[in-house]
Amino acid sequence: MLIVAIISCNKVNQNVADSSVSHLSDSLSSISIGITPHKYTIVVMGSSTAFGYASTNWQDSSWVGRLRRHYQHNKSTDTAVIDIAVPGYTTYQEMPTGFVHPYNRPAPDTAHNASKAMLYKPDIVIINLPNNDVIKGYTNTEVLNNFKTLYQYFNRNWVRCFIATPQPRNDISTARKLELVAVKDSIQKLNFYSIDFWSPIATTNGTMNLRDQVRDLGKSDSCYHLNNCGHRLIYQQVANHDIWKGYTYIAKGQY
User: Fold this and answer.
1) Could you tell me the domains of the chain?
2) What is the pLDDT of residues 148-189, one digit of tens each?
3) Assuming Cys at both sites, which of 81, 85, 102, 205 could form a disulfide with 50, CB separation 3.0 to 4.6 Å?
């Protein structure tokens, strides 16, 4: 695949949407665009999972909220975690400003894209786009090309970039599920710079579905959104990945 050429459980309450939406202002309220008051900065980009949708409380239950809490409690690592994800987004909205998109594809969102992420002077960017591209019928070739562009963009700017694998959905055809698996397999060829979000939440019986334990059965979005258990499992994937391994610090503003 083209991307290889670049070498990367509690139940949901009824207030989930409101609490999730409020996290963006909370995430940025104490941080001005540019240099953060922390030595290190992680920016998370993506769609509903990175946004924390369907977790009961962003700060305590979403995978990004858990990651921030981890660094808040670990005083030896002075790290800010900034979340600029937007539910429903695809790779196209995440592309750097100036990217020329096909006429029938979304334009980059300058308030939440790669260029916006760079304004926070990140040390690390994590991209979590589970499956919206495939659901919208975008080809695997264009999706992987977009991931390649994002990965190269951050690397050119001396930013370590990790790409999370897709996540299963239960409401799509077998053909679409196989497309997701193909994207997953290609991203995993990035080795260290991929993070496996598929394995801990996927069934192992060949159905390529979300496990019942990681979704709120009976909810209208339970075929694709993760509950607290699901968010905890993928947080653990990030926490166990050692994203700082071999990292060389570059002082803010020097790149």
Assistant:
1) 2-239 (3.40.50.1110)
2) 999 999 999 999 999 999 999 999 999 999 999 999 999 999
3) 85
